[in-house]
Structure formats: structure tokens, C-alpha cells
Design a protein that fits this description.
The chain is mainly alpha-helical. Helix content is 73%, strand content 0%. The chain has a single domain, classed as MetI-like (MetI-like fold, Orthogonal Bundle), CATH 1.10.3720. Helix 5 crosses helix 6.
Amino acid sequence: MSHQPRLAAASYAVALGLLMVLLLSSRFWLGDAPLQMQFEARLLPPSPTHWLGTDALGRELWARTLAGLAVSFQVGLSAALLGTLVALSLASLAMLSPPLDALVGLLIDTLLSVPHLILLLLVAFALGGGTQAVIIAVALTHWPSLARVLRAELLSVRHAPYVAISRGLGKSQGFIVRHHLLPHVLPHCIVGALLLFPHAILHEAALTFLGVGLDPTQPAIGVLLADAMRYLTGGYWWLGVFPGLGLLLMVLAIGRLASQLRQAM
């Protein structure tokens, strides 16, 4: 295999790592800038003094955008990891017996047949909204596709010679799953989590935009975009352009890393 995909994946991983450090540390060096109001500087366009402009309360849009991206990053990461854990657990459960395999397959097909956004809204609304509700809702609606891939990989490896030898030596099904099948699907879990990551971020922003996501007092991207809708017709374009552009760039960077990592593995 050529080293080019691996080098590309490594470079994207370094860039994403720097982005993660920047976003996660923003709460320390931003301070109260995302919430600081300046009523004399309301709705000002981008300028050397106000880099990305200000909102209706005079708050700096660049600070609120960075804070919102940090919130979206944390929520998306938590949801992607939880969704991957659910997918891996159910795919492993399907290997224990044919009835469990049929039950897991039926559950995957059932959830995949439900419109995605409707299921997201129902789960988030049932849990009462908020950060935890968004994480759980996104995780519970994003695992079926990855679980189908992991289940297919485990089914293909289950009859491998080394698995048959282990079974012939009297090893239990649980031992085979833990020591033979799970290590095989670990790279798929890593790539799958990265592929879930941008979807989780976008759907978190969508739920917040629709009013069943994060607290409106938080400087989340969905909150910024929802607030911007009231002012776009007045010509205050920067309120929606810069938060949306930041979200788009972050999602594209994570998706690109997932693509490169999939080629490398």
C-alpha cells in the first residue's frame, strides 16, 4: 500500500487535533467575550474593530462563533462516540446467537425506515431538550448504519480459520467476540465514529435551530443561526454567514479526515 493515504490522513489528523485544542481551550482565553454586551455597538458590520461584526446586543460575533463551534464540537464528539458504542454493542450482541442476530437486524431495518429528522425531533422532545437530550437523541438515531456495517464485518470473520480453531479449543462465544472479532472491527469503529461526527454536529445545530436542542442562552451555532433569521431581511448578513461558514468548514474538515483515514486503513 502506498504511504500517501497514510501521510494525508496523518496531516488531517494533526490539523483536526490543533482545531480541537483551539476550540476546547477557547473557554479559557475567550473569557466572557461571547456574552459581553455593548449596546453602543449593536449590529455593526465586520470591521478592523469588530472582526466579524456584532449582534443585536452588541456582542462580538467572532467570539460567539468560536464558542458555538466549541459547543457543537463537544456535543458532536459525545454523540458520535455514544452512537459508535451502541452500534458496536448491538453488532457484537448479534454474534452470540441466531435469534439475537435476527432481532438486531430487525431493529436496524426498523430504525432505518423511519425518517431521520422526525425521529431526532421525537427523541429530543421526549427527553425535554437540552444538551444531554441532544447527545442521546443524535446517538440513538445515528447508530443503525454503522451497526449494519459492523455486523456484516463480524459475520464475514466469524467463519475464519483462526476463529474455528479457537472454537475447537473450547473457547466460549463471548471470548471469541472479545479477542477475535472486536479487534478486527476496531478500525471500522474509528472511521465510523469520524463519519458520524459531522452528521452529529449538523443535526445538533438543526435541533437547536428548531428550538428543541441546546439552551437558547448558550452561544451554540444553532442558536446563532436562529437569532440571525430575524435580522437577515434587514441586511445584517454577517449574523448568519459567519456562524454557518464556521460550521461548514468544521464539518468538511472532519469529513475529509474520515475519508483519508478510511483509505489509509
